[in-house]
Design a protein that fits this description.
The protein has strands at 7-10, 21-23, 39-43, 48-52, 75-83, 85-87, 93-95, 97-102, 107-111, 117-118, 122-123, 128-133, 142-150, 157-162, 169-172, 181-188, 195-203, 206-216, 221-225, 237-243, 248-257, 260-267, 274-293, 299-307, 310-312, 318-321, 325-356, 362-368, 377-380, 386-391, 394-403, 413-416, 423-425, 437-441, 445-447, 455-460, 465-468, 477-482. By secondary structure, the protein is mostly beta strands. Strands 1, 29, 31, 32, 34 and 35 form a 6-stranded antiparallel sheet that branches. Strands 23, 24, 25, 26, 27 and 28 form a 6-stranded antiparallel sheet that branches. A hairpin with a 5-residue loop joins strand 27 (325-356) and strand 28 (362-368).
Amino acid sequence: MKHMRSIVTFAAIAVPGVLVATTSFLTPLTPGTLDRSPEQVRMPTADTRVICPGPLLTDDEAEGTDTEFVDDSNVSTRAVSASAPISAADGSVSAARLQVADLGGSANFDNPSSDGFVSGDDPIDKTKLITGFARPGAPALTTGVETVEGTSGDLTGLATLTCGSAASSFLILAGSGGAGSNSQLLLSNPGDVPVQAEVTLMTPSGQRGEPTEVSIKAGKQRAIRLAGLAAGAEALAVDVKVDGGVVAGSLQETVLDGLTPKGIDLATSGADSASQQVVTGLDGKDARLRVANPGDDLAEVSLKAYGPDGEIDIPRSSMTVVAHGVAEAELGDLEATSVVLDSDQSIQASAFIGQDGEKGSADFGSINATDTLADSQIMALPRTGTGKLYLSPGQGQVQVRGMRDDGSLTQPQSIDLNPTGTTEFSPAEVSPDAVRAIVISGENASGSQSDGVHASYVVTTDSGISAVQPAPAPAGVAYRDIRLG
């Protein structure tokens, strides 16, 4: 076993839940405007809502026009949802009520507040809305993961996605307008009124054309095929801004080389734009790094890579990205690698890894740059293949607890971080029972080569490769100083 690849110890104290708390203050009023003293009030915790996009959309234009055409793809789409226990301000501990419903439709099931809950590996044929209902003083530590697995035909491969929340603006670094790629942007409106979205495509030469206006009905999903908007552009970033509401966005891509399947993928937005981005879990063939520059000035980006045994050489140590454009760097075959990107501008990053299949087929998976690990985050795991958790270089320990089929948590285990390299960890090490989700705490960890510690989970099957990231930390218990009266 390579040095410090995975060093695990049992934590001495098992804490049943973690209270996520934040404190913020409004700007004080001008002295003398009011006679009263400030009062501190607790702001309500917000429910957690995420959207799983549902089955892959396919092209059927050939059906009915070619007697030789047969759609022989064997594809299954499944979703797992989980709700983990968390402490409330009053000291009580429980997992939030969890509901799964069709987008714009009725609930499939509604699990009450409990000691912990993990759903089955449920087949889905529609877009799903997963809601974790916060308790007073306790945010909802909930998530969902979608798995699309194709074992034959054009759609051979594996696509997994940590289901994302709706927002008024986001950037997805995935997709292509090149030959053989079918890339579609999926926009889901969980609200009760229609919304208008503005879609802008970023390419290696900069912004492609004017923004496209798209209307999405309440409780509906709309697909936009990107080849018609950016034909010939091999690498894309999709910038979405919403007027009068929020939408959840994801991007699906299926690739064919002639008649040979070259993979399927689902992607969503990652960490917000910043001068530093960290992508971890690059473990596969033909790794590529994609960087988007949403700003008005040229971005100069430096790259450093850290394998399991320390810093490694990669083919590129820097990149230049045009304003409102994207750039890619080919990194070759990598093993358990984290890449740290620093720039003089705010940028966003993602990466792609590949795997060879049978008879010339292949698959690929995207990995987003992630935010720094918070005190408590949850990650539902795909119920297929084998997978590993990757942690970027850091100091201290990351604590992991596994969730079993019955929703119960394992004893916490602490992973000692490698300060100069990427740490690998198999969730199977947490428990002899099957682990369906993990709760991660970065409270006692700090980044040694970047600002904070970052995590990704990569899963492989005989026919595919893909990745998921921890769900963002839930909205905590916030306090604000306000003047009453």
